[in-house]
Each structure stands twice: as C-alpha cells, then as structure tokens.
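Q: Could you fold this chain for me?
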Amino acid sequence: MKQRRWISTVTALSVSIPFALSVSAQQDTQKEIERYRQLLADGNPAELLEMRGEELWKQKRGPKNATLEACDLGLGAGKIGGVNAVLPRYFADVDRVMDLESRIVHCQVTLQGFTQAELTKRPYSLTVGERQTDHEALTAYVVGQSRGAAVNVPQAHAKERESFARGEKMFYYKGGPYDFACATCHSVDGQRIRLQDLPNFQKADNAQRAFTTWPAYRVSQGAMRTMQWRLYDCFRQQRFPELAFLSQASIDLITYMGVKAKDGKMDSPAIKR
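A: Sure. Below is the predicted structure, expressed as structure tokens.
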C-alpha cells in the first residue's frame, strides 16, 4: 500500500512540476512583453502619423477645396475631442450606425467632394516601410484626440441596439475551414497567439483593455493599424471570407466590442507587438 501511495505521489509530482514551470515561464514572458511595450510607448511612432493627419484634417483638399474642420463625428460639427470613445453610433443624416472610419470617409465625400470608390480602394498601407495612407493618418489624428476619454458607445437608438445584437451574433458565429469564431480566441482566459495575449471579452477589464488600445502601432509591421484593419486581419486568420472595409459587419462587431468595453479609458494609438 505504501509503495502504491509513493508511486502515486511521484506521478502527481511529475505532472505538476512541469505544469508549474510552464505557468511560471508564461508569466515571465508576459511580464517581459509588457516591459517591452512600456519602453516603446514613450516614443510611439504613431505620433508622427497623428501630426500628418492633423495637417490633412486642416488642409483644403478635394474637388470642393475644403477642410474637414466642419466634420460632424457625433458630437457636433468640428468637435473631435473624445469622439472615438462614443463611436460607433447612429447618425440621423444617413439613417444608420457608423464607426469612426466610415464617418471620416463620409465627411471626405460630403465636405471635400472625393468619391467613396477612390477613398475605399486602398485604405491600408500594405508592405513594411511603405508610406501610410491618408486614411490611416486621419484616423490616427482623430483617435489621438480621445486619449483619457471614457468609453460610452450609445445604445439609445433602436438601430444602435440592432447593431450590437448583430455584432454579438457574429462574435459567436463559427465558420470557415477551422470552425472558428471570434469567441474561440476571445471568450476564454489565458489564450495567446505568438507573443500576443488574447483578451477575454466576457470580462469587462479585458474588453476595455482591448478596445481602448486600438488603433495601434504594430512594431512588427512598422505601421499604425486601424480598428477596421484589426478586424480584417482577424477574419484572415480565421480563414473567413475577406471582411470588406466599412462593411455593416465590421461596424456591428466594433459596436459589440465598444459596448462591452464601457467605462474603459481610451489609450490609442497604442503600441503592439
């Protein structure tokens, strides 16, 4: 009997010790990643893109030779401070819910005379070292004006609630060759892809941390990436059909994420791996 008990104890230790070492190693890695981010945050290259975006915002451009200074992003014409914390939202002038990026494009069309087609043809820079697009610069500028603002994505209008409901359904929808859903990675604790920890959107602090730190400068790509790009890349990794830029599906997902992140403090453009 004593021999069996001894064997059982040894077996348990042989399983628990590697597990404990694995957990310890994982925690150490997370600490180093966080330290790496803090070191880089003091000189976030996205700040340069914000400056370029401000110039574009105030510059007369397009067929109408106008600036974007009269753009209404949800808090009134010309007001951009804190807007990223309250988007997506319903806009009566278009009778639908829009996120920040779709509203910026809308203002470029209505105020400056650009066409929707030319603005959405290539919204993202593609290769490392390539000059970032005007859309990325404008987004960086506006997003930067919301640092410290509390997230409060509205749900008062029926279409805002419908957008949230569709986004929630999409978040849990499984499909593609691997039967993946957003929830596969983002509804459990302790998940990681490469060196990036994956937030659990069922926990308020996780949802807040994720939503408030996008857009973000990706060190590995040498570029600032917008929220629309983030979702596009998630769909790519799930092997889903390509998520169209400014599509209703993308806006609904951002609505869902924003509502789940209520009361978080905006801290973007942040810096990521």
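A (continued): The longest helix spans residues 2-41.
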